[in-house]
Amino acid sequence: MRLTNFDIKNAKPDAKPYKLPDGGGLYLLIQPNGSKLWRFKYRFLGKERLLAFGAYPLYSLAEARSKRDEAKKLLGSGVDPGAKKKQERIAAENAAKNTFGVLAAEFLENHEAKGSAETTKAKVRWLLTEIAAPIATRPITEITPAEVLDLLKRVERSGRRETAKRLRATIGAVFRLAIVTLRADRDPTIALKGALAAPNVRHRAAITDEKQLGELLRAIDEYDGWPTIKAALLFTALTCARPGEVRGARRAEFDLNRALWRIPAERSKMRRHHDVPLSRQALELLEGVWPLSDYGELVFPSIRSNTRPLSENAMNSALRRMGFSQDEMTAHGFRSTVSTILNERGIRPDVIEAVLGHQNENVVRRAYNRASYWPERVELMQQWADMLDEFRKL
Q: Is the entire prediction scored with pTM above 0.85?
């Protein structure tokens, strides 16, 4: 006899559990504590099995019957509904464990093992742990393109278009890790291609006029601030190196007898060592700045400690004190300065690019250039240092 809602509501607990059958293997188990539990008894491969459907009234009579019918369909297809339910539970538990935050942490670990530059690692870590924090606890398989887009648009609306673009790429990299490790089957960022506004490209300000450059050099010469900052600015101008490479320069990287500064791969933006020929003027500057750090490891230490390099803004702040606005000149702008002036003077572009340490995508050509251009680079760096002296007189 099939159950009715009246039968279920009026079923009273007894001293021992008892069953109210509904037919087709479905029954309601009445517990001594008054709870009413749906159960489905079936046979699979000759063995009797039991499947729980939940409690009444959370699941109504109609819902319990629907679950029974679904289970019977699976049996008809040769599938054990109990085993399938267990597999789905395990999959759900694994999905809950494999959150975006878990995958992001694994991605960061792999990224740091590659030996990326500290600034690059810090930027990726910031993007994934700070900016992407709203999706950190979400199962990786449940994150939708709309969810990622909402996060990216919030960053974009704050005016950080470049950050939004980098965030999309970095989130995509985490999803690709999830895919290759079989913890996700799609990357929602692919659907977002073209969904963000193009970043406002702002080139670093640089002085490219020779007379104005001479004025800048005289201002640096007369700078009465912290002497290490003054030396770092001049050394940046003389070597055409990136400000971060100059700030982090260590004594062990220099061979003064060979007039050579070897920037190691871990500190080079291109992830390969870069040799810088040192002009006579650069060597004289090093001799003068050497004692300022009490002969510590760093060549250009900060004001507060000789074990810490100059801060990222130290050189730019000094330029502002000299009267050069951020729209006129930046420490990184020296690289644009040397590139523009030397190109205008007809110096071979390949040699200029080699001086600047720019990566050539052709591996064979890159290896050839590093070897063949060294004498020309040595000569050019001395010419450039002499030019700077001449610009001071303009």
A: no
